[in-house]
Amino acid sequence: MIKVGIVGGTGYTGVELLRLLANHPSVEVQVITSRSEEGIAVADMFPNLRGHFDLCFTVPDVDRLAECDVVFFATPHGVAMSMAPDLIRRGVRVIDLGADFRIKDVSLWSQWYKLEHTCPDLVEMAVYGLPEVNRQQITDAQLIACPGCYPTATQLGFLPLLEQGLIDHRRLIADCKSGVSGAGRGASVGALLCETSESMKAYAVAGHRHLPEIRQGLSEAAGRPVGLTFVPHLTPMIRGIHSTLYATLKDPKDGLQSLFEERYKDEPFVDVMPEGSHPETRSVKGANTCRISVFRPQNDDTVVVLSVIDNLVKGAAGQAVQNMNIMFGLDEASGLGIVGLMP
Q1: CA separation for the pair 323, 332 (Å, rounded)
Q2: What is the pLDDT of residues 212-232, one digit of tens each?
Q3: Is residue 244 part of a domain?
Q4: Catalytic site residue 176?
Q5: Could you tell me the CATH number of the domain that includes residue 306?
Q6: Sorted alphabetically, which keywords does the UniProt record give (predicted)?
Q7: Least C-beta-crowded within 10 Å: which of 52, 160, 240, 279?
């Protein structure tokens, strides 16, 4: 059994990790931490986990976490980089669901996250945990930087086109909508029901923290720096991301459907839908699946890709478990064979 520790077990991604790991056949969760909820039983805070975990939240302790085989950080940025060095020195494998190790340019990271990075050497060794791109590197990694939710949906949608050099890499547009859980579990006026229900709004149009991460991944796929306009929106739903992606084809022609089908034919968690389909966020609710469809409206030179995920699963906890499975040589789908919830 793989001994697992979770730092930050009370946020939405933390409890989602617990939900997924509760039925994982090869995992034993030994430590779940929370400074604010120390001593409280996990099942008392999250009754859906009753009968699955007989653990209480504890204050993070490196010595106790070091007894685990792998530690997940489901924490705000800045937390993982304060503890990961000690754990890695002791041979523990680390999967960070936060942003501490995603961006390779440390000065750029500091610019967007308003913190000085305390362990840039670990940024260099971290593997970006998008299995559809870095599966081989994930196998031998000791530190995984799990991608963000917007970056996951956006990169998976653009990758086949950029890898084949079919689109103008200078003018990419990502128009993305997210459910309110993407803002986290902490109380804030902007996430209140009365503030979000029956309304939709764009935010961070001038610049969102996920922008440099998305650019980094797309630039690697294109083999050159890309130009990207990324506009996120907040929608009145709990879970889900819908990314509508636009690009200009260099040589407009048919074959885009087969291109996507071929690129993702062996990917267990990317579903290229039949031609003409419009994927819905509710079809991936609770599942570690990205559903994609591709269009060329009016047979013109614009390609439109629709990409949907559950931001808490394929956009966070599910992808983290997928990475763990790869790291430990398990069936990649172990513990993740969950069908989306309908309705």
Answers
A1: 8
A2: 999 999 999 999 999 999 999
A3: yes
A4: no
A5: 3.30.360.10
A6: Amino-acid biosynthesis, Arginine biosynthesis, Cytoplasm, NADP, Oxidoreductase
A7: 52
Which range marks the domain in which residue 184 is found? Answer: 149-311
Nearest CA to 205 out of 231, 228, 182 is that of 231
- Please report whether residue 233 resides in a domain: yes
The rounded distance, in Å, linking the Cα atoms of 204 and 115 is 19
Domains: count for the chain: 2
**Same-domain check for residues 103 and 244:** no
- Residue with the two structure tokens 């010595």: 63
Q: CB of 271 within 8 A of CB of 288?
A: no
The reply to whether 103 and 232 lie within a common domain is: no
Catalytic residue among 119, 149, 176, 290: 149
Q: Which of 22, 92, 37, 45 is nearest to 64 (CA)?
A: 92
pLDDT confidence of residue 185: 65
Residues 163 and 284 in one domain: yes
Tokens 């469809």 belong to: 293
d(CA 155, CA 161): 10
